[in-house]
Amino acid sequence: MTVLGEAAISVAGLGKTYRLGALGERPSTAAAAAIQWLRSTGKAKYTLFDALDDVSFEVPQGEALGIVGRNGAGKSTLLKLLTRVTAPTRGRIELRGRVGSLLEVGTGFHPELTGRENIFLNGAILGMTRKEILRRYDEIVEFSGIEKFLATPVKRYSSGMYVRLAFSVAAHLDTEILAIDEVLAVGDAEFQRRSIAKMREAAQGGRTVLYVSHQLQTVQALCTSAMLLDRGKLVYSGTVDGTLQAYRDSFESFALAQSEAKNRPGNGMVRLSRVAMDDEFVKSGDDIAVDFELPPSKKLIGTYFVSMHINNDQGSVIAQCDSRLVGKWFDPKEENRGRLVIRDLWLKPGVYTVDAYVCQAGVLDAWEGAWKFEVLPDLPYPEFAESSSIEKGLVFVDFEYGKA
User: Fold this and answer.
1) Is 80 exceeded by the pLDDT of residue 215?
2) Considering Cα of 74, then 77, then 82, then 88, what sign does the dihedral take?
3) CA separation, residue 300 to residues 22, 104, 257, 332, 361 (Å)
4) What are phi and psi of 302, to 5 degrees?
5) Domains contained in the chain, CATH given
6) What is the pTM of this model?
7) Alpha-carbon gap, residue 99 to 158, rounded angstroms
8) Which of 35, 149, 365, 404 has the lowest CB atom count within 10 Å?
């Protein structure tokens, strides 16, 4: 048990290096192994990728630390190292206390076991007795709101149900450190609000909270300190306000540099060659169109989908548009030229960026900051008002008032 104010987490010179390349990855099936052998020349060809490099910091007990950064910055990798999901390549981690975590949807629970059985399994893994788990059981069930489904195997849960139960287990079992990745975005708004309140309560009660998120407003509301990761390196650590300002300052320069990156995140089997819009200036409420091009790939087997994210200048994702959601998949043997059209995009005035992703089961290519555009300060409403006077909310909405 640590004393309030003492370091609950100490990290020194932490690094994680992955080998990228067909022979650097272990095939999961005999068929995959055969395909890999046929494609190989008999020599191991791979490149080294530093997901984290020389990261050092301490977190006092009772601190709520926000971890921010662009996709691929190393945030989730850091949490996986701290929660012992994977081992570091180099460096040292000291944890004073047990860790409860909620990382990716699908991790932490046994899919064949029921919700109830998984509650007891997680408690046992943390070293808790059955009596200790039973003392917390009713709180876990009530907070999750899925009591009717506790006798159902979790493999039949929706992602939202899974997150509800997984967060409730992590938050209510007796651990000194609570690590939460951004999977809370899967839940509904009310559950997100209750979860943030629960994490704040945990920190005030002396537990140490690690929280990864792209939602800067949530980080500001919950955290007492923060750090910024950029391409595997710790570039800023300090107050929440200072960290978020450093993130905003780096956002534009990083986005523009990505267009020249030869080693963008992804396995490289297919790469976007072009992402563009007809105009860099749009009005709120207009349709926008994003064109993209992908050359053929001889390496890739199976169709893929494209996902476009629209980000505001705070780094928050305003919209995610996956081609798979509208039944559009692409054949890697063909040269694919496509267009995403977003209807009536009621964005607030400001600068926005487009992130473009190519995906199968994982990410094939991630071109962050592929395009930048500006929404002009014209309100999409019939009556005039200064746009600066409409300061609340992330987007405009199409509304009207009338008699009830």
Assistant:
1) no
2) negative
3) 11, 25, 27, 6, 12
4) 95, 155
5) 7-253 (3.40.50.300), 264-389 (2.70.50.60)
6) 0.60
7) 25
8) 404
